[in-house]
């Protein structure tokens, strides 16, 4: 099987690492060779963050380059636009419609670009945009955006919901299990 | 068992399986998780040392006592530990000793991108260089065998992409090597000139034997290819990019042992291909060695010494097809890292900016105090350079800059390398004002304990070094504590200490707002009737505050009610819940 690529992008602190750990575990359980590349340290402090997940028969590079991603799972709209160039032709962006202003926008040095969804679609991107924040809040916490988005992502794979829920059970502390399972379910059925 | 592990976790697993007994490290991205993961194995004694030099000397002491040991650090940490490194290269070890060092090409979280492989060559030590987590585990275990077989410390070189990528590893069982009895061996372990003169030839002879070993070392391997027009020598993460784009087309010599290099293996490989190409990140280290062997090749003339590589970069340089994507035409605003909402450093840096002081900075989250709108830092060099630097700055200025200059340094960084600079200030008498930003944790690397926090690496309570007492003991008479959330108090204290005719230390104390035990306050709200849109609250660069349609707004999901912005509002528009 040719190597498949997914990028998980967002803003430091949004829970992208849990999403990649969970998905990586699921892929390993399915028997794939897997690599998950994370960013730690300075860039976590509210900066733009990206995690690369790759799977197949033999995965070499731990990162994904421009024009290679089959999926970009984006936790924030501007980040979807930022990483769009990494999508391969025919790839898909699944994005939260939430907007978080970066510091240059907060200080007035730049403006948050308008109509990003429309313009990404016009550029030929297969875009699946959703309000993951509202569903996360419905599940019980705004912090569960990651599981809502994973739920939405799961619709593009053939595995049954139970396979995903098993990976969630294995990756999430008992205390937050119900919240995360619910958030995933809401995302999957949104 | 097959499992996914970060490269760093795999090194820790290797330490566990090899029977390593003592780990002493200083945190530093991208190396930190090695020691954090090692600490989770009850069989391993693991600790945070105050700096890398102490960590390496502790690990040496453990080896001397007869137990396998490890110290871990980032590339710049090895500069700090270079002193013991070059001399334990002479003494060799008793039980196996491994030194983990992680480079940061691309400077994800570093102040330079130096190439640690030069240290192996300069100190005449063997260095192994894994390319993924499975190798990280295997090489760590092998490093102990090499260390004991050749009587040498062994360097294990990681890099950001190997350290911070999870890949599949197969775990094994721990071995418990019998402790090697300690025997007094003056000629081996007392490195005074008379003995060291006799050890140097041992080092040279050992290097020759290691170079012979490198010829058959299983970690140096040729992978055959169908097209011998090009042959690639590569290592570490560069190997992964090469295999990603070339597959089995070109023959590849993968060097898992970075130093010493196998001369015959390289010569034979070079002779089997038309164009020898070396693909390596950062410096032309393999390249220089090949050129010294008289080989002609393509290296840094094609592959940049700057930053990280990727599969597209390697494909482009090798003349292979490069995938392309589509970008939006307009520029996407950057999203740089920022100080968190409620960060205790914010109020302090606001004050430094307001007073228009010259600020010698240091290494930590608070380097973000250099970014507008705070823009309150003039220099950042290395751990401790703020405290040493301000002394030289003031001496050179001959009193001109007294009262206008401060040094800022974090609690962990102060314990790492700030104390000696403060000793110099006291001893050689400069009128420096040093501000210790005490957020009660090592913040930037992800919340590691340090000697001032009262907890050890395992989270157990332990001796807490008292900063006030320490600074006074060093000889600083003026030591005071301020709360950085209280802007008036900060400003008054800084002005007073700058005016004082002697050196002083201000401890700006408040725990990192991300610490679990820190209780935050409810978010502030904006009284839109009172807000005049003056943007005074924007001067602190808080990610929770923005101005829309001429009025300030507070993001209630981010605001932790630190009230720093409230102190800037002359119109009483920012309110805590319940306030009228």
Task: Please characterize this protein's 3D structure.
With 190 residues, chain A is α/β, with parallel strands linked by helices. Chain A has helices at residues 16-29, 77-83, 103-106, 116-122, 132-139, 145-154, 161-171, 177-188, and strands spanning 4-11, 33-37, 48-56, 69-74, 87-96, 126-130. Chain A has one domain: Pyruvate-ferredoxin Oxidoreductase, domain 3 (3-Layer(aba) Sandwich), CATH 3.40.920.10. A six-stranded mixed β-sheet of chain A has the order 2-3-1-4-5-6, sandwiched between helices. In chain A, β4 (69-74), α2 (77-83) and β5 (87-96) form a beta-alpha-beta unit. In chain A, α6 packs across α8. Chain A is globular and about 45 Å long. The model of chain B has no long low-confidence stretch (mean pLDDT 97). β2 (33-37) of chain A pairs antiparallel with β8 of chain B.
List keywords for this structure.
heterodimer, A: about 190 residues, alpha/beta, Pyruvate-ferredoxin Oxidoreductase, domain 3, six-stranded mixed sheet, 8 helices, globular, B: about 575 residues, Rossmann fold, five-stranded parallel sheet, 22 strands
The number of strands of chain A is: 6
Name of the CATH class of the largest domain in chain B:
Alpha Beta
Q: What is the rounded distance between the termini of chain A? A: 30 Å
User: Topology as H/E string of chain A?
Assistant: EHEEEHEHHEHHHH
CATH topology of chain A: Pyruvate-ferredoxin Oxidoreductase, domain 3
Please identify which CATH superfamily of chain A we are dealing with. Answer: Pyruvate-ferredoxin oxidoreductase, PFOR, domain III
Identify low-pLDDT runs of chain B. Answer: none
Most extensive interface between two protein chains, with residue counts: A-B, 61 and 58 residues
Strand proportion of chain A, as a percent range, falls in: 15-25%
- Helical content of chain A stands at 25-40%
Q: Give the distance, in angstroms, between the N- and C-terminal Cα atoms of chain B.
A: 62 Å
Strand content of chain B: 15-25%
| CATH classification class of chain A | Alpha Beta
Rounded to an integer in angstroms, the radius of gyration calculated over CA atoms of chain A is 16 Å
What would CATH call the architecture of chain A?
3-Layer(aba) Sandwich
Instruction: Compute the number of helices of chain B.
Output: 19
Give the overall average pLDDT of chain A. 94
CATH hierarchy: architecture of the largest domain in chain B:
3-Layer(aba) Sandwich
- How much is the average pLDDT of chain B? 97
């Amino acid at each position: 099987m040719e190597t498949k690529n997914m990028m998980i992008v967002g803003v430091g602190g949004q829970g992208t690492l849990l999403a990649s750990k969970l998905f990586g575990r699921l892929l390993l359980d399915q028997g794939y060779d897997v690599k998950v590349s994370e960013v730690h340290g300075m860039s976590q402090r509210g900066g733009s963050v990206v995690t690369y997940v790759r799977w197949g028969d033999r995965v070499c590079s731990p990162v994904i380059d421009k024009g290679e991603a089959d999926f970009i799972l984006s936790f924030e709209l501007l980040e979807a636009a930022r990483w769009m160039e990494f999508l391969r032709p025919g790839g898909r962006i699944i994005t939260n419609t939430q907007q978080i202003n970066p510091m240059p926008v907060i200080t007035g040095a730049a403006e948050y670009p308008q109509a990003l969804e429309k313009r990404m679609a016009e550029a030929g991107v297969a875009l699946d945009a959703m309000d993951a924040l509202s569903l996360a809040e419905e599940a019980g916490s705004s912090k569960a955006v990651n599981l809502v988005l994973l739920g939405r992502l799961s619709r593009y794979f053939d595995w049954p919901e139970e396979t995903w829920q098993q990976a969630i059970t294995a990756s999430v502390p008992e205390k937050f299990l119900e919240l995360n399972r619910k958030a995933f379910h809401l995302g999957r059925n949104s | 068992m097959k499992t996914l592990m970060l490269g760093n976790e795999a090194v820790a697993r290797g330490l566990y399986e090899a029977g390593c007994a003592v780990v002493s490290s200083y945190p530093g991205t991208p190396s930190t998780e090695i020691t954090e993961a090692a600490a989770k194995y009850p069989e391993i004694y693991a600790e945070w040392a105050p700096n890398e030099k102490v960590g390496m000397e502790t690990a040496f002491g453990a080896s001397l006592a007869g137990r396998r040991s490890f110290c871990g650090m980032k590339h710049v940490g090895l500069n700090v530990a270079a002193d013991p490194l070059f001399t334990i290269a002479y003494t060799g070890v008793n039980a196996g000793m491994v030194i983990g060092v992680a480079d940061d090409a691309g400077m994800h979280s570093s102040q330079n991108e130096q190439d640690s492989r030069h240290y192996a060559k300069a100190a005449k030590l063997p260095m192994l260089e894994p390319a993924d987590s499975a190798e990280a585990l295997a090489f760590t275990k092998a490093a102990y065998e090499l260390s004991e077989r050749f009587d040498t410390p062994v360097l294990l070189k990681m890099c950001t992409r190997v350290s911070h990528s999870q890949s599949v590893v197969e775990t094994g069982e721990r071995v418990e090597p019998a402790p090697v009895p300690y025997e007094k061996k003056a000629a081996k372990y007392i490195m005074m000139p008379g003995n060291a003169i006799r050890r140097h030839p041992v080092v040279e002879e050992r290097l020759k034997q290691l170079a012979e070993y490198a010829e058959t070392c299983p970690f140096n391997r040729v992978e055959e290819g169908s097209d011998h027009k090009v042959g690639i020598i590569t290592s570490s993460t560069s190997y992964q990019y090469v295999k990603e784009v070339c597959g089995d087309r070109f023959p590849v010599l993968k060097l898992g042992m970075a130093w010493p290099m196998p001369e015959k293996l390289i010569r034979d490989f070079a002779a089997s291909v038309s164009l020898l190409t070396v693909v390596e990140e950062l410096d032309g280290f393999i390249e220089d060695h090949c050129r010294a062997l008289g080989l002609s090749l393509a290296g840094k003339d094609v592959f940049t010494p700057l930053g990280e590589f990727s599969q597209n970069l390697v494909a482009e340089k090798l003349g292979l097809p490069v995938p392309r994507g589509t970008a939006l035409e307009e520029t996407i605003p950057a999203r740089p890292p920022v100080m968190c909402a409620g960060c205790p450093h914010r109020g302090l840096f606001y004050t430094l900016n307001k007073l228009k002081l010259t600020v010698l900075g240091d290494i930590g989250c608070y380097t973000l105090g250099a970014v507008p709108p705070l823009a309150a830092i003039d220099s950042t060099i290395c751990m401790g350079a703020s405290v040493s630097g301000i002394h030289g700055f003031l001496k050179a200025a001959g009193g001109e800059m007294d009262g206008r200059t401060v040094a800022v340094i974090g609690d962990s960084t102060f314990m790492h390398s700030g104390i000696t600079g403060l000793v110099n200030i006291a001893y050689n008498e400069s009128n420096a004002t040093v501000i210790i930003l005490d957020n009660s944790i090592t913040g930037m690397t992800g919340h590691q304990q340090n000697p001032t926090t009262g907890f050890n690496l395992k989270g157990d309570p332990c001796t807490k070094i008292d900063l006030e007492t320490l600074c006074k003991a060093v000889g600083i008479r003026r030591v005071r504590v301020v709360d950085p959330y209280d802007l008036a108090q900060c400003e008054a204290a800084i002005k007073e200490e700058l005016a004082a005719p002697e050196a002083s230390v201000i401890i700006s104390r408040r725990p990192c707002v991300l610490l679990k035990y820190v209780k935050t306050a409810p978010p502030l709200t904006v009284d839109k009737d009172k807000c005049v849109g003056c943007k005074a609250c924007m001067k602190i660069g808080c990610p929770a505050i923005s101005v829309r349609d001429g009025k300030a707004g507070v993001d209630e999901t981010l605001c932790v009610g630190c009230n720093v912005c409230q102190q800037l509002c002359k119109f009483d528009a920012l309110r805590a819940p319940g306030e009228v």
